[in-house]
Design a protein that fits this description.
Shape: elongated
Number of helices: 10
Structural class: mainly alpha
Helix content: over 70%
Largest sheet: 2 strands, antiparallel
Length: 253
């Protein structure tokens, strides 16, 4: 045991070098936050495109989703890291990780948003228009708020997958948590076992709260019985500014 991969002296050395793991953890956390913001922005934009009445917008959204859902993330990372410099585009590794992971998961988030919008009763849009709302105003004030509430659990699951996928940065020396673990373990007589255990624990600390929250929120939605649009009692179409009418879904739709 004293000379095995999990020998006590290896653990002692690991905890001595633990600040290096914390630096990687910070980079992983920062990339995750920025990539998640990018994925949400792209997901909402292309989710709206995919439910638009305009054919060209739906086509643009479809192309985006098909490209990024049907090519591996690691291929996208290598393409940006190795191929783009040949056409004069050189990005630092942090930016590559943030952009690639954010754009990749934006495609999945857009599908979640599209499904959420589609689940809202169509009558709500018609009711909003009857109150003088434009299409964009109805989306902004009525449809999207309900959609985001409904899709929060799957969005949380996407956030978990996004955090785990930031580990692809290790393939291009990204300085993230996985890269730090690999670098430490491959250093002479040290071991991959303790390094990967600690790395797994740190990813777990990031992901488990999100998964737990998603499960609780999903359960609250089911218990409230609000679910998706048509079955959502109590959903309200607020009156446009300057009018006094409030249309309650159950009565008016």
């Amino acid at each position: 045991m004293s000379s095995g991969p999990f020998a006590l002296w290896r653990w002692g050395r690991l905890f001595k070098d633990f600040p290096g793991f914390l630096e990687g953890f910070k980079i992983t956390l920062l990339v995750s936050i920025l990539a998640l913001l990018l994925a949400l922005i792209l997901g909402i934009i292309f989710g709206l495109f995919s439910t638009s009445n305009k054919k060209i917008l739906r086509a643009i959204a479809r192309v985006y989703v098909e490209i990024f859902q049907n090519t591996p993330l690691v291929v996208q990372v290598f393409f940006v890291y190795n191929a783009l410099p040949y056409v004069g585009v050189t990005l630092d590794v942090f930016s590559i990780g943030m952009l690639c992971v954010g754009i990749y998961h934006g495609a999945y988030v857009s599908e979640v948003v599209r499904a959420g919008i589609s689940s809202i009763a169509r009558g709500q849009m018609e009711a909003a228009k009857s109150q003088g709302f434009s299409y964009l105003q109805a989306m902004r004030w009525i449809i999207l708020p309900q959609t985001l509430t409904i899709v929060l659990p799957p969005l949380a699951n996407q956030a978990v997958n996004l955090i785990k996928n930031t580990s692809v940065m290790a393939l291009v020396a990204g300085g993230d948590l996985m890269y730090r673990a690999d670098s430490w373990a491959s250093n002479g007589t040290l071991s991959y076992g303790p390094a990967y255990i600690i790395t797994g624990v740190m990813y777990f600390i990031l992901c488990f709260p999100l998964v737990s929250w998603a499960r609780r929120h999903e359960l609250r939605i089911k218990n409230r019985g609000t679910g998706s649009g048509p079955g959502g009692p109590g959903l309200v179409v607020p009156a446009k500014a300057g009018t006094t009418d409030h249309i309650h879904q159950g009565a008016a739709l």
